[in-house]
Design goal:
There is one protein chain. This protein is an alpha+beta fold. Helix content is 24%, strand content 19%. It contains eleven helices and 23 strands. Strands 1, 2, 3, 12, 13 and 14 form a six-stranded antiparallel beta sheet that branches. A three-stranded antiparallel beta sheet has the order 4-8-9, with no helix packed on it. It has a three-stranded antiparallel beta sheet with strand order 6-5-7, with no helix packed on it.
């Protein structure tokens, strides 16, 4: 899936209202909504496009304008705090001195053994953002009181005092615009990118001292999520609000999987579900009126669907891998992650901050996001992290590990072909681990903290994803003069089998190697079968 990654820098405070009510306390959003960016770009481009082009960009649903959430000092993107997270009441030690969350002090409410954390009352963690590395990020806001002016007297209007809850200037926010593959031509993507790089004003009161932003863009690619077809539940963590209609056309805040577009219709487990909701009426600048009121599931909500004895079909796995559910996805409604390690374990599992950059979620952006069309300074003048990012984008980073993974992928493909031929198994028949099982291996490598942790997560006899009792991994191939099960072949390739030291492969970064190997094999298995393929 093609994407435009963008960083917004607030040159002035920006106001995005949580709701449109004119009475009561005003509350502002702590992020830049995708709808605001869509409106700003549409106002620049709509008159310059023909009917088909404007429909494709703004109405077809093939383009999704993502929300922009605050980034931390290192430039890493963040996600809304899961509502399933709890801490000990008034426990300040949950945040370390380096402004990262301490995972041992955070629990998933429904996974706590006795409903407490170390015997103390739990308290829900409701606000803020977290990176995949556990870093704490909060948007800074400021409140300004204003008054309307009487047109006749040019004095303060009676009983017309109001306030703006605005995000402070100088902050940075990261987001993405996603394009469905082969649906939006590259020339339209380029025109949209050019419109973004112009001076823009977002939010309310743009004619006064609010709303000016600076935006930097870069082209990117987004991989689909990996959903294990052997999972016993579907646990959705919503990264944005979600608008869902039930089978009767009514808005629902407790959707079944059928309401979310899956063929398998399951009801939520409400003992393991955490939902907040809000309602608002979006303002339509073209009509100069409010649109129909929306009631949405709030970002950060967590919904759990137990599978029981049922299994997900290929279409449902494909639907879940896209990570979008419900309606009005064009303004980033319904974005969610499926079975993320931040919400499926008793304590959240964060990524290791020292892992190679290319193994980090592709939503990362650096301190200075270079525009694709900007002339970049010499590499010697750039920060080390930026140099590393540019090397990754150009494909010149740690090529030895990539080459090793490609070589072993070819070896594995040949082993599978030979095993099928010697056993009389048709080439189109399944043999060895499935694509989803290799996807699980790739996901495991991403959350492993060390080589020893990777070895345990992959090959532990009780809980490992590659244990001999699992179908596929117990199939045998002929390698180095002997038959061996595929899980043992992988274990020896990685050097985790001490009984065969001579078969060790010199791999500098085993966790990255496993991710690349599993990704390449999974891609081969997902391709249509042809001669010479697995």
């Amino acid at each position: 899936m093609k994407s435009i990654e963008y960083v917004i820098i607030l040159k002035e405070p920006c106001v995005f209202s949580e709701r449109n009510a004119s009475e009561g306390a005003h509350r502002g959003l702590d992020y830049v909504p995708g709808s605001a960016l869509l409106g700003a770009v549409a106002s620049r481009l709509y008159s310059k496009l023909d009917v088909n082009e404007s429909f494709k960009l703004f109405h077809s649903g093939h383009v999704r304008f993502g929300n922009a959430y605050p980034v931390n000092k290192q430039g890493r993107c963040t996600y809304p705090l899961p509502l399933s997270w709890v801490r000990q009441k008034k426990d300040e030690s949950v945040i370390n001195d380096d402004q990262t969350y301490e995972p041992s002090r955070i629990g998933q409410q429904d996974l706590l053994d006795d409903g407490t954390i170390e015997g103390k009352q739990p308290e829900q963690m409701r606000s803020g953002y977290v990176s995949l590395f556990g870093e704490v990020v909060r948007a800074e806001s400021t409140l300004a009181l204003k008054t309307s002016i009487n047109f006749n007297t040019q004095r303060a209007k009676e009983a017309a005092l109001f306030g703006y809850d605005a995000m402070k200037s100088g902050q940075r926010f990261f987001g993405k615009i996603l394009f469905d593959d082969d649906e939006v031509p590259d020339d339209l993507v380029d025109r949209l990118s050019e419109a973004l790089e112009q001076q823009l004003f977002l939010g309310r009161s743009r004619s006064a001292e609010y709303g000016q932003i600076e935006i930097h863009v870069a082209r990117g690619e987004v991989e689909k999520q990996i959903m294990d077809d052997n999972a016993d539940e579907i646990r959705l963590w919503f990264h944005s609000d979600c608008l869902v209609y039930d089978q009767y056309g009514q808005i629902t805040l407790c959707p079944s999987t059928g309401d979310l577009g899956l063929l398998l219709n399951l009801s939520p487990d409400f003992t393991r579900t955490y939902i907040r909701a809000r309602q608002y009426s979006p303002w339509n600048g073209h009509k100069h009126a409010y649109d129909m009121e929306r009631q949405v599931i709030g970002k950060g909500s967590v919904i759990t669907y137990p599978l029981g004895n049922q299994t997900l079909c290929h279409d449902d796995l494909e639907r879940l891998s896209k990570g979008f559910f419900g309606f009005d996805q064009v303004v980033d409604l319904g974005r969610a992650s499926v079975n993320s390690p931040l919400v499926t374990m008793e304590h959240p599992q964060f990524l290791d901050a020292d892992m190679p950059q290319e193994r980090i979620d592709k939503g990362l952006l650096l301190d200075r996001a270079p525009s694709q069309r900007a002339s970049l300074p010499a590499a010697s003048n750039l920060e080390p992290s930026l140099v590393q990012w540019l090397q990754i984008k150009s494909g010149r980073h740690d090529s030895s590990t990539t080459q090793e993974a490609n070589d072993i992928t070819r070896v594995y493909s040949q082993l599978i072909i030979e095993a099928k031929q010697s056993s009389g198994i048709p080439n189109y028949s399944d043999f060895g681990p499935s694509a989803s099982q290799w996807g699980q291996v790739a996901g495991t490598s991403a959350i492993s903290q060390s080589d020893d942790d990777l070895n345990l997560k992959l090959f532990d006899p009780m809980s490992g994803v590659c244990k001999a009792s699992n179908p596929g991994w117990r199939d045998e191939v002929f390698y180095e003069g002997k038959y061996m099960k595929i899980y043992l072949w992988l274990k020896r390739i990685l050097g985790f089998d001490e009984s065969e030291p001579e078969m060790k492969l010199e791999i500098r970064d085993k966790r990255r190697f496993v991710r690349l190997l599993a990704r390449d094999i999974r891609r081969q298995l997902d391709e249509p079968a042809s001669a010479g393929q697995v």
